[in-house]
């Protein structure tokens, strides 16, 4: 699989190119939007990782051009933005991006998202995630439980979003640590457990139906468990 990386910051571009190559991808690197668009039009690109803030031709313009041409309109695009603003995320998705990541991000999450897009083709991240009475507005970063707004910190939202978008999958503490904190924690640390406890106080404790469950010796899972005897 060949990934086109359009990133003007030299250190970031070199780091991502090296890391993606080590992860098994063929990588073509463009340092500006015009060069990136030209490479995409040559063909042979399976996915584009597109930085928004580019000199000359910015990421928005590149994305619009990709989606406006038959030869490139179906190429999955994941855009990277350093601006964690709702209107930036909405604009990117409306222009046709398939997914986005806000800088700084965990490299392992970038690779996981790229592999998902390559397996499934152009799949947009759901704007709303619903599990039982839980509703997560991914774009606007808002959470409601049984119709009641729940106020979360940025870290709590990231943890909940990770658990919810992988509903039914047991996530290990090390995976959670790498994707939410971009760190590797010692196995005996209680950092993850404490973070889950704080999240449960807001998401589960005030409500009869529990959604975040512990799998002893394995990790945590977000799901609606069947009623006893069902």
What does the model show?
The structure is a single chain. The chain has 230 residues and is of the alpha/beta class. It has 8 helices and 11 strands. The mean pLDDT is 85.
Short description:
This is Response regulator. With 230 residues, the protein is α/β, with parallel strands linked by helices.
Read across the widest sheet, the strand sequence of neighbours is 2-1-3-4-5
- What is the tally of helical segments? 8
Q: Major sheet: size, sense and barrel closure?
A: 5 strands, parallel
Radius of gyration: 19 Å
Distance from N terminus to C terminus (CA atoms, Å) equals: 45 Å
Integer count of domains: 2
How would you describe this structure in keywords?
CusR-like, phosphorelay response regulator activity, transcription cis-regulatory region binding, transcription regulation, Rossmann fold, 20% strand, two-component regulatory system, five-stranded parallel sheet, 39% helix, 2 domains, four-stranded antiparallel sheet, Arc Repressor Mutant, subunit A, single chain
């Amino acid at each position: 699989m060949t990934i086109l990386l359009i990133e003007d910051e030299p250190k970031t571009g070199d780091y991502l190119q090296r890391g993606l190559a080590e992860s098994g991808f063929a990588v073509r690197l463009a340092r500006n939007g015009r060069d990136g668009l030209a490479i995409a039009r040559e063909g042979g690109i399976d996915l584009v990782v597109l930085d928004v803030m580019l000199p000359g031709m910015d990421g928005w313009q590149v994305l619009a051009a990709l989606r406006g041409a038959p030869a490139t309109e179906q190429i999955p695009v994941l855009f990277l933005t350093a601006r964690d603003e709702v209107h930036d995320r909405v604009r990117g998705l409306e222009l046709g991006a398939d997914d986005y990541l806000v800088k700084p991000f965990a490299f392992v999450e970038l690779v996981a998202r790229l592999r998902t897009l390559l397996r499934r083709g152009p799949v947009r991240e759901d704007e709303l995630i619903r599990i039982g009475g839980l509703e997560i507005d991914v774009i606007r970063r808002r959470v409601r439980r049984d119709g009641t707004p729940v106020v979360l910190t940025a870290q709590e939202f990231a943890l909940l979003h990770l658990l919810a978008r992988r509903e039914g999958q047991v996530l290990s503490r090390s995976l959670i640590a790498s994707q939410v904190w971009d760190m590797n924690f010692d196995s005996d640390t209680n950092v993850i457990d404490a973070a889950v406890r704080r999240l449960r106080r807001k998401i589960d404790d005030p409500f009869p139906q529990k959604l975040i469950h512990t799998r002893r010796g394995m990790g945590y899972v977000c799901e609606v468990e069947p009623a006893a005897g069902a």
